[in-house]
């Protein structure tokens, strides 16, 4: 009955490539595996189970009733059973239903047929009336549950630790029960793409925006061909002391993480497999110019770039798995601001220098979602940048423990010019970034009205607590399932209101604009807060300041016994720190002690699971 809180466990590693930054180029944000040979490929993994389509679980024709004193295997007398049936019929009659005993359960409850399919909410109402009988211990709908998304049949799914329902995985299977990203374009601003068989069907449009022919390595400047000719280099080609490198096929790897075709019995699964990738080529030999990258952000988001045809496939999400050292330059910041004004979320790699992200651009620009990387244990990867400008962390791999601890995705066998399709493990914040970009696409697909600010806020507020040391890695670990659930309940932020006290005794009434942490209703300790769950997508936040050393206790009581609401507690960074998810008719309580040396603000969140909404969807929070 709770939102899925997935475990997060596994490994990450890769064979990657990094280009050193110069004063005129922007480097790729991937990092080579220590001691790994470029081109090392993993062995094929066995096929997994084919996916099943979810069905609508919103009706049932049965009721479960547990009578006090009835033990498993005992049989009530005929008179008692007749009375029970009559009472259920009385409760069901307003809904045109009846009552017929079906069987007893192994736990001593009875299953009753109502004779017709009813909405689960109607059966809950019948159950509430039946449960009012003092001889009844409990009554509840006999719900029809449905198969959730199973693991796809992509042959390398078993190797994609980063997507699993584990302590360090994203839980994409649960997210896919809501959406797979249909209707959303994600721009991969990178080296271009190869038409890999496992991702080509999800490539749409694109453009080569490299203006310098030396960097482009394709014999010309800007054109409509965003395919990747290779970015190999020779010794000293890019700078004195430069080491020769093979082609990275970096953009193809990133694109596969986002939207590899899923359920096709081939290779890997993409995180947003129904989304489309718009490849925008800006990186070539030695990297790419800031001016080209800035134009790419504007063009990809639907803006106008002189001399370039309009983008027929504007992107709602921009993936920039690239970066260089230095402060945020004006050119990049202006482009980011323009892209956001066009409605695009800009997701940027924090960088691979194991240093503060404040010195890495464009991750240090305003308005971006800056992404750090964690490895197989959930701890910050040895290479990942960190700092207060990081928004959250995602799987990027840490190959110090073996190459299979990287991020597996689509690649090409060519060491210089293109070869054949393959797959390879890479590591880097370059690999973490498309995880976030793809989840952002899932969120927007589920709720197209979300703004870039809302997506960023919900990504952070839905992130899971770190399971290992990841200091200065942002709000937490990316979680696809909870992010999508949050997006479905997200609304447009409005200025923080001032709740109206209804009595001098400290009772506070919900403002109805408190659907995010940014617009949480303020409350004090002690106080009583009353609110309403207006619909199944509604969620309410209340902020409470807590002095150093003090303990906060929040108790949630629904207004009607058939309502099932869940209670969550977050810290000021948006990390979830406590949860209570009991069933209908039960009281939820969370407790947390501020062990810091200064006062801190915590956020209680009430989230709908099932039952009453609207005028009957009331609840009370006792805050102490």
Written overview of the protein:
The chain has 624 residues and is α/β, with parallel strands linked by helices. It folds into 3 domains: 27-52 and 152-228 and 249-486, Peptidase S8/S53 domain (Rossmann fold, 3-Layer(aba) Sandwich), CATH 3.40.50.200; 59-141, Alpha-Beta Plaits, CATH 3.30.70; 500-623, Jelly Rolls. The chain has helices at residues 78-92, 120-131, 172-176, 213-216, 250-259, 290-300, 330-341, 429-446, 452-461, 480-489; strands spanning 27-28, 59-67, 100-104, 110-119, 136-141, 185-190, 207-208, 276-281, 317-320, 322-325, 345-349, 360-361, 369-374, 392-395, 407-412, 421-426, 500-503, 507-509, 521-522, 527-532, 539-546, 551-558, 564-570, 576-580, 588-593, 600-610, 618-623. Strands 7-8-6-9-11-13-14 form a 7-stranded parallel β-sheet, sandwiched between helices. Strands 17-18-20-27-22-25 form a 6-stranded mixed β-sheet, with no helix packed on it. A 5-stranded mixed β-sheet has the order 19-21-26-23-24, with no helix packed on it. Helix 1 crosses helix 2 and helix 8 packs parallel to helix 10 (480-489). The longest helix is centred in the C-terminal third of the chain and has 18 residues, at 429-446. The radius of gyration is 27 Å and the shape is elongated. One of its GO terms (cellular component) is extracellular region. Its main location: secreted. Residues 490-536 are annotated as: Disordered. The active site is at 190 (charge relay system), 250 (charge relay system), 430 (charge relay system).
